[in-house]
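quick one before i forget lol
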Amino acid sequence: MERRDLVDEDGTRRAHIAIDELRQRIDELDERLVELLNRRAGAALAIGHLKQRLGLEIYQPDRERQVLANVRRANAGPLDDSAVTRLFERIIDEARRLEREAGHGGPASRGRVGPEP
């Protein structure tokens, strides 16, 4: 066997190991993201309950613009600002859905409320 074949085979093996390690890192990050998203949702639910008590509308366009501006400002890439905006628009939509459900006695009203300690 030529030396080149051994190097290529070894390089391929290292590449597969690297992919596996990176996928494990992604899995760990995904778990952290789920935890953080649920903590964020809990805070949004708490705000929703307070809005309901105060008679305020769930949809607050000024606050949504502020949140989107904040996350774009915090964005250091590699996601571009429009990708970050789309992701957070979806997160905000889900938070509003939870607030509406909680206000109508839906499943969200029976879940944990407020951020985790």
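fyi The helical segments are 3-54, 61-74, 81-103.
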